[in-house]
Structures are given as C-alpha cells and as structure tokens.
Amino acid sequence: DAGVIQSPRHEVTEMGQEVTLRCKPISGHNSLFWYRQTMMRGLELLIYFNNNVPIDDSGMPEDRFSAKMPNASFSTLKIQPSEPRDSAVYFCASSMGQGMAGELFFGEGSRLTVL
Amino acid sequence: AQSVTQLDSQVPVFEEAPVELRCNYSSSVSVYLFWYVQYPNQGLQLLLKYLSGSTLVKGINGFEAEFNKSQTSFHLRKPSVHISDTAEYFCAVSPNSGGYQKVTFGTGTKLQVIP
Predict the structure, then answer these.
(1) Smallest Cα–Cα separation from B38: which of B114, B111, B104?
(2) Is A17 at the interface with chain B, CB within 8 A?
(3) Are A4 and A96 in contact (CB under 8 A)?
(4) Fewer Cβ atoms within 10 Å of its own Cβ: the N or the C terminal residue of chain A?
C-alpha cells in the first residue's frame, strides 16, 4: 500500500515567493496533520484536520501560512509570502480515528529553503 | 498540558552493545506514550506505543520500552544494537482521554552506532 505522499521533496525559493506543499494521505485515514521540523524548535504541529475539517490550527505561525483540505485525499500547506525563517522540513502525517491512540503515518517530508 | 524531556541529544554506542534512550514526561492526566524513529531524510515511523496494560512494551526491530508511572519515565532499550539502528529517536506523549488530543514530541535523541 502507498504511504503518505508529499510533494515536492525539495523546494528552494526566494524570499517573498509563494510556496505550496502538497500531501496525499493514506486512503481510509480521516485525520491529517501538518508538522514543521527545525533544529531550533524540533517537531511542531501546525494544523490538524479531521474528516477534512480543520480542528486545531493553533500551531499555524501567522497569517502567511494557510492550509486546506478540499477532499479526503488531498491537502495543501501554503506560505505567502515566504521568509528565510520558514526554512524547515514540513511533514504531513495521517491516521485513522480522532484520538492519538492511533498510529501516525508520516510522509517523507518537504525540505523548504527560502533564500 | 504535557511535556516530554529527552535529556540525551546524542548517544554513541558500539555495535552489538546495549543501549538505553531516556524519556521523562510531565502530565496532569493519564497519558499514552510513544517512541518514533526517524532515519536520515525520512519521516517518522512508530517503533512502539504504550496505551494500557503491561508496562513493558515490545516494538519493531528488537526495541522495547518500560512505562514507569511513579518515575514518569518511558525509557527505550535494545540489548544489542546494529549499524542500521543509527537514527534519531523521538519520545511522544498524549492525554488518553477520548477525542482529539494533541501529541507532544520530545526534542529527539540521535543514536550513533559505531562499528
């Protein structure tokens, strides 16, 4: 079975440009998470969707960040405009169920570099 | 709110030697506990989880962890490590009440297995 699929794997852009990261969760999973990983701050939860509805977006850094989940098989994380401090690895994860007793399945991540 | 402390940021160990990676947590409610592993340039993958029952939990790749409620610890152990165990290991915790509960990750411990 295919795991969580993220694209692009690597993105290099210039400050001020728009960045869109994409995620396809595992079929049948109804929870989707976006995480950001940096050396300084570790792994941070940005936003959590359940049944395509955003449930917890308290981790979204600021208005430059937005996330959507138009259907059960696709989600995007957009940064506009991007800044150098947004450089990080962004992970998408999915799981079955709502509670965290379920296992999180992570994608391979999208490494973003903002120059 | 809960927190996770992984005191060791790096642990070097010789191949075939035993290893213990330490994890302590803080929470005002009962919790679920997890260990995830991240190989280079990959996403996180669940090693094992404690939900309830036996305090000794066995996971994949020969790893095990013991939940100690009185010491609020969930240390990860392996009796004999292999080169392929070189990776970063994350301890995580979430409240075990129903519904959506945010998971909190530790800062990670890099295990370096020396030939």
Answers:
(1) B111
(2) no
(3) no
(4) N
Residues B108 and B22 sit within 8 Å (Cβ to Cβ): no
Is the four-CA dihedral A98, A102, A107, A113 of positive or negative sign? positive
pLDDT surpasses 90 at B20: yes
With beta carbons less than 8 A apart as the criterion, state whether B18 and B2 touch: no
Q: Flag residues of chain A having pLDDT under 50.
A: none
Whether A9 contacts A113, CB under 8 Å = no
Q: Is the pLDDT of residue B16 over 90?
A: yes
B-facing residues of A in 80-99 (CB < 8 A) are 91, 93, 98-99
Tokens 């449930």 appear where?
A: A55
Q: Say how far apart CA A75 and CA B61 lie, in whole Å.
A: 32
Q: Are B8 and B76 in contact (CB under 8 A)?
A: no
Q: CB under 8 Å to A73, separation ≥6 — which residues?
A: A24, A25, A27
Query: Within 13 A of B57's CA, how many CA atoms are on the CB side?
Result: 22
- Tell me the β-bridge partners of B68: B73
CB B101 within 8 A of CB B1: no
Check residue A91 and give its pLDDT: 96
Which residue among B45, B102, B108 sits closest to A45, beta carbon to beta carbon?
A: B102
pLDDT band at B52 (very low <50, low <70, confident <90, very high): confident
